[in-house]
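Hypothesis: this fold can be encoded by more than one sequence.
Test: take the structure tokens below, design a sequence, compare later.
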């Protein structure tokens, strides 16, 4: 498309992102990435109980938030991690660690808070652990803090899945100093061995195998390549075409002719909201 998206309102652009699914024009993404003011609208997309854009809206939103990289966009991603797991499904495990780690050391305090939320789903906590490990790998100045935080999980944690994730993160960093803690955790049977066995963990942590670093590197690359024609072609090949509806901005006149704005009229009905 050759539309001049710079002339479009932010609400109109976010509406397109919500509704276009795998047909999304990347020009919209490029324009929104220049507009930090879109973050509250993207958070609204994530907060909504009803998936938009055939389920792609929330997934597009988190990847766009990862491109904007402001304090507000980090907060919105943390919100999605804690509250919108069902909307992100497998994407939560696949891409979210890289998106969060892309914010760098500044994200560590919030990620540590996520891990320490008592009743949060362990899979969300595991995502935060993966992001923390990736930050420790990429940003050397943060390595001591990351090693200390993850080591405490390995040493004192009682959830076998989370302990295994912390071990994976440390082992992928080739952190030799934690090998005694790793061996102790396995001896005390506090590790999910289906995720990583003792031999592999010790081998990785010792630096005898180089592929640990590649795990973190792949995490960053996968997120960077999300908004590409090749990637969306794969989505399209594996997804039935969604029903195409006229694209109406939230502040546009409602197509029903009521004279109200769309967001105050039929959009509410579409979302199952009555007043």
């Amino acid at each position: 498309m050759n539309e001049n998206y710079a002339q479009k309102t932010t609400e109109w652009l976010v509406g397109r992102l919500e509704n276009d699914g795998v047909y999304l024009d990347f020009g919209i993404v490029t324009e929104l990435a220049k507009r930090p003011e879109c973050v509250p609208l993207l958070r609204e997309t994530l907060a909504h109980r009803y998936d938009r854009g055939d389920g792609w809206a929330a997934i597009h939103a988190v990847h766009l938030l990862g491109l904007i990289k402001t304090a507000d966009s980090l907060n919105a991603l943390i919100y999605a991690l804690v509250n919108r797991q069902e909307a992100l499904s497998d994407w939560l495990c696949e891409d979210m660690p890289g998106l969060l780690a892309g914010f760098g050391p500044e994200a560590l305090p919030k990620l540590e808070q996520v891990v320490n939320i008592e009743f949060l789903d362990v899979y969300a906590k595991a995502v935060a652990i993966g992001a923390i490990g990736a930050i420790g790998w990429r940003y050397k100045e943060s390595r001591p803090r990351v090693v200390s935080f993850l080591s405490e999980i390995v040493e004192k944690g009682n959830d076998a899945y989370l302990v295994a994730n912390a071990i994976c993160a440390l082992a992928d960093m080739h952190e030799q100093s934690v090998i005694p803690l790793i061996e102790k955790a396995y001896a005390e049977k506090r590790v999910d061995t289906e995720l990583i066995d003792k031999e592999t963990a010790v081998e990785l942590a010792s630096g005898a195998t180089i592929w640990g670093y590649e795990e973190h590197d792949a995490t960053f690359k996968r997120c960077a390549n999300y908004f590409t024609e090749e990637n969306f072609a794969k989505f399209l090949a594996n997804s039935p075409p969604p029903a195409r509806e006229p694209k109406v901005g939230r502040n546009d006149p409602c197509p029903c002719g009521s004279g109200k704005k769309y967001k105050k009229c039929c959009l509410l009905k579409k979302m199952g909201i009555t007043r």
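Confidence is low (pLDDT under 50) at residues 241-247, 268-275. Residues 109 and 132 are 10 Å apart (CA to CA).
Hypothesis status: open.
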